[in-house]
């Protein structure tokens, strides 16, 4: 290679480096909030013997407070997004090292059937509520599937399949982000109100909380059993995304256009969009743990590290939620999503009692 060619390539490479945003500022911001949350929990433990509010919840609330008071610049956004997604996916994967797949088998086919039925009923009821309130068909599908399966991930996966309008996608995701955090914070209240055991609460969290990472935030403060059961139940819900997307794609082409001009063209999704890598990683580690190939000495630090990464991700999740977004979301969308969530909670609680889960 000539010196002239090298000279030409150097500025181009430098330009590419300049264009690529650094992850470090956003990650450091999330770590700072995490350390604050952990420190507050330590103070609680020292003063009362146990934490009243876990570091996970503190990190979410602190992140929301920071985001509401200050909008992070472009310099921080890539690192925050990385912490909210990739770091969280690693945490979920590592959690598999502490889970035995025997828990699913022990739950029996009744629970698995109940999970599938809950998803189906929630989608149908949510869609009916949305249409009754006058929401367009495509947005009703987004809200229904996001509510019943896995929140933003389901919305993002289904939107291109039905050719959803970008404004509908943005409104659905914005409200789901806020409501998802409120659900994580409020769901533990059902333990004293309904007299739920750790196992029952884990099933309830797995059936109702929107995202796998948020299940961790809702169950880790309650106990390891709740975390394991909730994660397993939630993963079954997530696996339902594949069949639901296939079913919706069968009639997506017949959905009427909802605004002037041609509707966006539906497209198909690949396997990796329907079954995320971290779910496969979680199941692989859980299988190894079940076979005795991951000893306690390795599982314990993996679980602890997963917990720390989860707090980092919850800080990032909070930094992505501006409570003022509620004022910009239409009243019909607010009623539709809230009503859908209440239906999901009612169906989930009914399943607990119908199956006699102790």
Short description:
The protein is mostly helical and 358 residues long. The protein has helices at 3-19, 24-48, 55-69, 74-95, 102-132, 137-150, 152-162, 166-186, 190-194, 198-208, 212-219, 224-239, 241-251, 271-274, 277-290, 296-319, 331-355. 77% of the residues lie in helices and 0% in strands.
Explain what the structure shows.
Helix content is 77%, strand content 0%. The model is unreliable at 13-17 and 260-264 (pLDDT under 50). The chain is mostly helical and 358 residues long. The longest helix is centred in the first third of the chain and has 31 residues, at 102-132. It has one domain. InterPro entries: UPF0324_pro (IPR018383).
Instruction: Please state the CA-atom Rg, rounded to the nearest Å.
Output: 22 Å
DSSP helical segment count: 17
Strand/helix succession: HHHHHHHHHHHHHHHHH
Mean pLDDT across all residues, rounded? 79
Derived from helix and strand composition plus strand pairing, the structural class reads: mainly alpha
**Percent helix:** over 70%
The low-pLDDT segments are 13-17, 260-264
User: Please, how many domains?
Assistant: 1
The fraction of residues assigned to DSSP E strands is under 5%
Which of globular, elongated, flat, extended, rod-shaped describes the shape?
Answer: globular
Number of strands: 0
Distance between the termini: 72 Å
Biggest sheet architecture: none
Family: Belongs to the UPF0324 family.
Pfam families: Cons_hypoth698
Keywords: Cell membrane, Membrane, Transmembrane, Transmembrane helix
Protein name: Putative sulfate exporter family transporter
